[in-house]
Amino acid sequence: MPIVNLDHNVELYYEDVGMGSPVIFIHGVWMSSRFFKKQMPYFRQKYRAISLDLRGHGQSSHVQSGHTVANYARDLNDFMKKLQLKDVTLVGWSMGAFVIWEYLNQFGEDNVKGTVIVDELATDFKWPDFEIGAFDLPALTGMMRDIQTDQTGLLKGFIPLMFKEELPEADLEWMLDETTKLPSSIASAILFDQSIVDCRPYLNSITIPTLLCFGKEEKLIPVAAGEHLRNEIPNAKLEVFEESCHCPFLEEPDRFNSVVDEFVKSLHK
User: Fold this and answer.
1) pLDDT by residue (tens digit) across 8-22?
2) Which of 72, 64, 66, 65 is nearest to 95 (CA)?
3) For the segment 170-186, what is each residue's pLDDT rounded down to a tens digit?
4) Rounded to whole angstroms, how far apart are CA atoms 133 and 158?
5) 210: number of CA atoms within 13 Å, CB side?
6) In the record, what terms sit under GO molecular function (predicted)?
7) What is the longest distance spanned by two Cα atoms in the chain?
8) Which residue ranges form the domains of the chain, and what is each CATH number?
9) Which residues face 24 on adjacent strands?
10) How far is residue 17's CA from residue 239's CA, in Å, rounded to a whole number?
């Protein structure tokens, strides 16, 4: 399987198919590249489609250190350098959006043509001046404790919240298999960091085009989060998926692929 070796014995697993302008898919917390299984066959026809497992996730190294959004962004930068990727489009779902924003904050926009942000807030935490946040301190504390005592039970309750419709048992099974690959120590460490990251201070400095893809069903992230980002990011467009919750790329894959494809094409005109 394709592996990129980073410093400190970190191996990142990735898939790399197709030819053309690179499009990199970045998953959410606890998830993996497998969640983009309905994107890779489509995008490989026109682009170089790449999906990777962040450190600690999926088939990448389960190293016990480095589990912060800022460090995942550094991993992404190293990954892009190792593969000599230029003029990329970054597609970030959930925590993957934070990784993109932190990448742009640390390394700038020179090597990025545009970004696709899928169902994420500017910050997940309910700060005093950000009421639409997903987590307050009791909720975050409770989830971190549940990870340590019943990781599988927590995920069985959490995963269905990502979807508008009831999940078939087979889908829940493979998603549980992917998300339980993380040791509980890693799962709780990155949950805490990604939940308190606050990207609001630098969103208005992003100048490259941004496509915001949000599910209308508000079990986890409200559409108001997308409206807030549209107002904060100068060159942003919001697309709402009526039949989706947190995973429009799985719930409405044909429309998602088409919308993102049109956006990526517009970046190269």
Assistant:
1) 789 999 999 999 999
2) 72
3) 999 999 999 999 999 99
4) 17
5) 28
6) hydrolase activity
7) 52
8) 3-122+199-267 (3.40.50.1820)
9) 50, 90
10) 27
